[in-house]
């Protein structure tokens, strides 16, 4: 089962009024509208923020012309609003236009160029365009290191975003290093109560959760949630992200009542702030569906999975890793219901999508292999299941290390197959390995 959580990493050229970047008269209509857009964005009211920013852009173009730096600032800000709404095509077009203006006017080694490169790379990461994203983040970080003082907030944001990219690709060691560097810089540069410090805590906590470090994860999630409730309010999307993170951790630990309460609170917030068709709304629907599936509430789970899948296909495309993960979850539901033909078809489709988008050695590929093998094992098709279990186990060990809970799960699944074939000695050996791993996590 694939749970979803989109790690919140703000698209950091610190979203700010173009008048701050390029000072003009405070009474100008474009300036007033740009300030209004900023206030609405910070409040999580993205729809009204977009309306104000679109008006600001038109007013600035009329006053300064289409190639002015003030126009590029508003373009970048409007693109960030579109990105937050899941309108990725519109966001990419504006980021690229803003980048072209800034490179032409300021030169290729300016912090504003780095900021726009970062934002464009973050968009590419969300779209699953990982090579483009990595190149953009690295280029932006190189500019910051070249022209800014050490330990600046913009570099910290880019480090965090690059770390998230590595985490998505299963490169956890590189991700943790960057997250910790970013957190240290942000605390020093922005203060320990800043919302971006909360984002860094949340990201590091999510990484710990994905590696089975549950106690460390819970402590950091709670710190992040408390800071966001204090600085952003109860109805902000970032607060909802912290709620979802903590719910996801409780779900993994079997604390279902606490998890459902937090997921429902988060879902209400996402729908209000981002709309019903945003990928973050889809992620929360998927997580709640997974919780219901774990409790045997199949009808509720199927409805939510299908709703989530439709949103992902529309917002991110049919071959995106998040679409593949949701399809995998729907296959898991069908397997639980004994709808084996439907399950097999969807498992295979999800596996193919993941191998294409993530590469053959990603943990999500291992998950798809494991799930397809489990389907075959439950049908008594052991000759097909065994090689898939072994391949899944190999990938998990390589990607996550030999003592990860997913390795233990994979060992247990292969042991069950061996027991069914009366290969008792092999089964017992695998079971003992799994027990050692799980006891080390207590």
Helix and strand layout, with pairings?
Elements: H1 18-21, H2 29-42, H3 46-64, H4 69-85, H5 88-106, H6 111-126, H7 130-147, H8 153-168, H9 172-190, H10 195-210, H11 214-231, H12 237-252, H13 256-274, H14 279-294, H15 298-316, H16 321-336, H17 340-358, H18 363-378, H19 382-400, H20 405-420, H21 424-440
Helix pairs in contact: 2-3, 3-4, 4-5, 5-6, 6-7, 6-8, 7-8, 8-9, 8-10, 9-10, 10-11, 10-12, 11-12, 12-13, 13-14, 14-15, 15-16, 16-17, 16-18, 17-18, 18-19, 19-20, 20-21
Tags for this entry?
442 residues; mainly alpha; Serine Threonine Protein Phosphatase 5, Tetratricopeptide repeat; 21 helices; disordered N terminus
Walk me through what this model shows.
By secondary structure, the chain is mainly alpha-helical. It has a domain at 1-190: Tetratricopeptide repeat domain (Serine Threonine Protein Phosphatase 5, Tetratricopeptide repeat, Alpha Horseshoe). 79% of the residues lie in helices and 0% in strands. The protein contains 21 helices and no strands. α6 packs antiparallel against α7 (130-147) and α20 (405-420) packs antiparallel against α21 (424-440). It starts with 17 loop residues before the first helix and ends with a helix.
